[in-house]
């Protein structure tokens, strides 16, 4: 009985630790070198994002949480873009390009939308499989926070304001 309790405790601690790791992010690490192919065919790289605070969001049109959080992502972009904030919405490789284009046009997404046709970008960003997955990158090109699932937007806004204030 004591062994079962101990194993259950270790399992619970591991799950809590992983959950905390995902929620709090892995600390500061360099954003991976990636090339994003936008809907218009143009390309942007991770290096192009330096000097801006950037939200990189992996999403899919078939993901209900992704669709539900998109108005908040739009509002966040609109609130901070004039201050040096960028958003890159990366559609997953399994998302049909025509669905992504239709979604971006019908919702009038005001930020950059990329399609990860090969899945290479998702792999470079930590082998992203769950959507939505969101990364916050500071002006130096370092990932400072990551979220699996919808972010807590008031908390996210506080972080963005702090990062925008950094030199």
UniProtKB/TrEMBL annotation:
SUPFAM superfamilies in the record: Thioredoxin-like
Entry annotated with the keyword Transmembrane helix: yes
Parts of the chain that traverse the membrane: 6-26
Coiled coil: none
Domain Thioredoxin positions: 25-165
Pfam families: Redoxin
Keyword annotations: Membrane, Transmembrane, Transmembrane helix
Highest rank taxon of the organism: Bacteria
Key word Transmembrane helix present: yes
Name this polypeptide is given: TlpA family protein disulfide reductase
Lineage: Bacteria, Pseudomonadati, Pseudomonadota, Betaproteobacteria, Burkholderiales
């Amino acid at each position: 009985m004591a062994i079962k309790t101990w194993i259950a405790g270790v399992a619970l601690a591991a799950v809590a630790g992983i959950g905390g790791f995902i929620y709090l992010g892995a600390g500061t690490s360099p954003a991976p070198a990636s090339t994003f192919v936008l809907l218009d065919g143009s390309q942007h790289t991770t290096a192009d994002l330096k000097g801006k605070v950037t939200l990189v969001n992996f999403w899919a049109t078939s993901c209900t949480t992704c669709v539900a959080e998109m108005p908040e992502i739009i509002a966040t972009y609109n609130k901070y873009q004039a201050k040096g904030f960028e958003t890159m919405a990366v559609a997953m490789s399994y998302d049909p390009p025509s669905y992504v284009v239709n979604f971006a046009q019908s919702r009038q997404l005001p930020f950059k939308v990329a399609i990860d046709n090969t899945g290479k970008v998702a792999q470079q960003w930590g082998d992203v499989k769950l959507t939505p997955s969101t990364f916050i990158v500071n002006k130096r090109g370092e990932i400072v926070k990551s979220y699996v699932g919808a972010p807590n937007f008031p908390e996210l806004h506080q972080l963005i304001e702090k990062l925008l204030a950094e030199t």
